[in-house]
Amino acid sequence: MSTQSQLKTYQPTAAQQVNVQELPQGGQQGNSQGYQQIPRAGSPTYTEAWALIEAARRMAAAIQSGPIEEIQTKRALRDTIRLNWRLWTIFQAELTTGESEVPDDIQTNMLNLCQFVDKHTVDTIAETTVEKVVTLIDLNRNIAAGLLESLQNAAGESKTVTPAPTNQDEKGGAEHPAPGTAPKGVQAGLIDQEV
Fold it and tell me: For residue 189, what pLDDT is reported?
């Protein structure tokens, strides 16, 4: 298949298509500075997923804007690839600050992905092909889908969570979890949920 036909036929798989309208948190605040949907503050996981989807959308639009040999298409691709690279650099910086609440195994996996994106991006800028850009698009969409799924799972769990039985201390003051039960935040899945 030629590069031109790949440009026109590139479509994300069903697993990569994300409907941001159905998300439990976030939303739209209007159209500003070319952004199609801007997430509301308060959900870092949703914001990260939105940023990945937006970067993927922009790279896909650049691929479809014209033949890759044209200077305008090359510039558009370079700009969107650099934007994506900055996004992944932000993820990398956040994961290495020492204050990250992300579990160690997920942190290691994300840092490995950040390293892959760094190397792949340099290679893609040096020798831009549709296939190399599609790799970045697919990676963004898959990570965003996972983040959004974790939000949906957390939203589903929080709807069915019942408070833990508690015991008041002897003076009638603070409540403590009953013996053998987890604290309320742990039961609700609120501890270490943001990725």
Answer: 35
Residue keyed to tokens 């709807």? 159
Residue 33, phi-psi category: left (phi > 0), alpha (psi -120 to 50), beta (remainder): left
**Position 144 pLDDT exceeds 80:** yes
Q: Give the pLDDT of residue 156.
A: 77
Q: Where are the alpha helices (DSSP H) in the chain?
A: 3-9, 44-63, 71-95, 104-126, 130-160, 184-187
The residue extents of the domains of the chain are 24-156
Which CATH number is associated with domain 24-156?
1.20.120
Q: Tell me, what amino acid is at 57?
A: R
pLDDT band at 50 (very low <50, low <70, confident <90, very high): very high
